[in-house]
Structure formats: C-alpha cells, structure tokens
Backbone:
C-alpha cells in the first residue's frame, strides 16, 4: 500500500513540534559555535582498534566508553539531554564475515511518554567523508573539529535528528558505518553493509543500554543516511527479524547508483564518486581490476587522496571535477560502467528496492535535487509499493537554485527534517 503526497498533513501536538523545532535551532547553534582544534588523542584512537577476536553475533557489544556531549561537563551523569557512550559492536560485511563497527548511543534524560518501553532510533549520517577522522562518534563532544595533523575539517550534522528524538525521550544510536574510525576502508553507499551497520546498531544500542529486547525501533537518515535507512528498512525482515521495527524516514536515498553517480559527476561533491569507487573496489576484486585498467595515474592519485578526506576537505580539493579527468581515455565513469557488464552487475547488486520493508516508510525526494535524481527515488517508491509496502512519498518542490552546488540537495533536507522525524515519532508512540 502506498501513499503519494506532495505535502505533509498537519498533525496534533503543537507543543511537541515546538520542542522539536527548538532542538533543531539549538543543535544548529551548537554546531555553529562549538569547534575543536586538536590532534587525535592516543587513548581515543585506541578505542577504534578492534580486539583480536571479534564476537560472531551481529550486534554484540565489544566495548564502550562514556563521552560528554556538546556543552556537557565530563564525568557528570544525567546531564541534559542524555548520557552518551561510544560503542564498538559486531556487524557483517557482504561476505558474511564479522566486522567491528563503532557508533554512539545516547540514553535521554527526558522520559518516554509513549506506549511500551523506550524506543530506539538509529540515525545514519549523510556524506561526511571516508577518512577515519570523519567518524560521527569523534564529533559528539565538538560537532566541528579541525585535525591540524592532516589537515582536515570534520562536521557532525546528525545533531538535529539526534536532539529531536532525545527531547522526546527516545534512545538514539548514531552509527559510524563500516570502516569509519575502524581499520579498513569505509564502504560508502554499499547497500548491504550500510543496512547491516544500521540494523546491528539497533541491536547494539539495546544491548549496551540493557533495554527490553522488544523495544520499538526506527531508522532515520538523509542522503547517504537516507540510503542506509532505506537499506535497513528492506533488510530488516531477513537480516534482523527479531527487531520490532516501527517506522523509517529515508530522505533522498541514493537507491540506483548508476543514476546517482552520473548526476554527482561535476558537482561540488564529485568526490562522492571517489568514495564509492574506493569502497566498491575494496569489496569487489573484479571492479578493482577495471579501475586499475581505466584510471589514469592522476586519477588513481585522486582516489587515494579522497580516501583519507572528510567531505569538507574533498570539496576544497575536488569540487566540480569530472571523472573524465580521472581516466586514461577521457571517458566519464558512467560511460565506462556501460562498457563493462561486471561493473553494471556490482551497481545493480547495490540497488535499493528489491525487498519489501516490514514497517511504514516516509520517503522523500527533491524534484530538483541536483545530486540525488528525483526519478530514482520515485522508482524506489514504485518498487516498494508494488511489493505491498506502506510508503508515504513526499516530493519537495524547491525550485532550481545554483545547480551543481548541492543547494537543491541541502534545502530539501532542512525542509523535510521535522515531517520525517514526526512520522517516525508518531509510529513509535502507537
């Protein structure tokens, strides 16, 4: 069953919506005014090194470390808006091998006023980069940090979603995804691995908090995070059937990578193509052979440079570059993909929409989004509803503004934040 909507119906609870709006403003202010300038501490780095033997059970907690959130005094418990700790947990890669992943769980100080036990929402960050220093768990105390040793600038822009849910008494888990902070490459927009990181993050949050096993669960994300949330939604039934998933908000998900990569080429975030190549070639040896064959020496150097950057660094070094400048032939990545069936097969394997979500989804697409094509989000809606999924599809109609500079990607993110989180909260309360 599908619900196609161009706008969001008004809902009751103006007081609660006001609190959510206040959370957005507060989080934004914090992000704008708080920054850390420092080299990574050895003790902090040690946390991200997995133990010699990784527990085989997905969602198993390997270790935890209490941390302060922005404006909290270290060492004092029960400060607003909640008690936070880093968590290292077990997930699985595309080869079904156990892998250590990190994230942050926050137990709110606000009470849960809905039915049943306190729920858990897993937040997937949008594109933040591929270097270990970009991991969201490293930005929880200072949402913007500058690593002078690289140099590198990292941002955590999951704060608005996190604070909205914390204010409403919801436990929040923010995953770092596979390979961010921990050893190995971050497997950017890998459908299975981002979905696994979200689902196992829910398991880890429940385990680390000692919460009830039947606690309600929700997934939230935009852009890369929207793809991760969408992946989790459709993988939940087969990968984590015990989770009591209630709802998902997936904003601007990169569901069809062939279409997304073509759209991103030549924009301010062209580096996202590099993140994708780096992650995919690490998991698919045949694809690595093709890249080594077709990429120019300067293109290979660019891919290596990008692999250690955060998105801010990548914008400074790679904005508006086209992949035709990274290849020996002068062909774009999309043109080369069309030449190789094995490359097409990899991207098809990572297309979202093949399975049915087992809970309602709020899906958003920007009509004029300049990096995440609207058509492939609409196709995802059609694919899911054809399988009988309950999907509310919201079309953001922001007119074209400075195309290729991702304004038409960012503005819809802000416009859909409250409707998307409101949708998840409403279902968690039922």
Residues:
């Amino acid at each position: 069953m599908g619900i196609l909507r161009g706008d969001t119906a008004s809902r009751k609870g103006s007081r609660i919506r006001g609190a959510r709006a206040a959370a957005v403003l507060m989080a934004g202010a914090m992000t704008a005014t708080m920054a850390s300038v420092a080299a990574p501490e050895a003790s902090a780095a040690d946390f991200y090194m997995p133990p010699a033997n990784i527990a085989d059970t997905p969602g198993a907690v390997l270790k935890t470390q209490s941390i302060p959130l922005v404006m909290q005094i270290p060492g004092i418990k029960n400060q607003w808006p909640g008690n936070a700790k880093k968590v290292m947990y077990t997930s699985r890669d595309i080869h079904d091998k156990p892998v250590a992943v990190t994230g942050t769980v926050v137990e709110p100080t606000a009470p849960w006023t809905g039915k049943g036990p306190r729920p858990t929402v897993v937040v997937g960050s949008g594109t933040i980069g591929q270097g270990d220093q970009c991991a969201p768990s490293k930005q929880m105390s200072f949402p913007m940090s500058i690593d002078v040793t690289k140099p590198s600038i990292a941002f955590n822009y999951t704060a608005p979603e996190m604070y909205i849910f914390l204010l409403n008494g919801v436990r929040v888990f923010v995953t770092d995804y596979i390979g961010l902070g921990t050893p190995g490459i971050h497997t950017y927009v890998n459908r299975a691995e981002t979905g696994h990181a979200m689902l196992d993050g829910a398991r880890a949050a429940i385990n680390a908090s000692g919460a009830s096993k039947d606690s309600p669960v929700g997934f939230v994300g935009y852009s890369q995070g929207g793809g991760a949330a969408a992946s989790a939604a459709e993988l939940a039934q087969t990968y984590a059937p015990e989770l009591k998933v209630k709802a998902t908000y997936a904003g601007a998900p990169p569901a069809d990578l062939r279409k997304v990569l073509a759209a991103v080429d030549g924009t301010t975030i062209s580096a996202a193509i590099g993140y994708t190549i780096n992650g995919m070639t690490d998991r698919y040896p045949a694809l690595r052979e093709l890249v080594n064959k077709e990429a120019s020496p300067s293109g290979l150097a660019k891919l290596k440079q990008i692999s250690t950057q955060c998105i801010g660094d990548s914008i400074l070094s790679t904005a508006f570059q086209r992949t035709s400048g990274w290849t020996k032939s002068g062909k774009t990545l999309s043109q080369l993909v069309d030449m190789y069936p094995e490359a097409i097969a990899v991207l098809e394997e990572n297309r979202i929409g093949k399975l049915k979500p087992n809970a309602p989804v709020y899906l958003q697409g920007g009509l004029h989004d300049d990096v995440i094509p609207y058509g492939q989000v609409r196709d995802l809606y059609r694919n899911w509803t054809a399988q009988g999924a309950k999907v509310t599809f919201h079309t953001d109609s922001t007119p074209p503004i400075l195309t290729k500079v991702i304004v038409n990607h960012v503005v819809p993110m802000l416009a859909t934040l409250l409707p998307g989180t409101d949708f998840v909260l409403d279902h968690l309360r039922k």
User: Anything to note?
Assistant: The domain at 257-348 is CATH 1.10.260.130 (434 Repressor (Amino-terminal Domain)). The chain is about 40% helix and 20% strand.
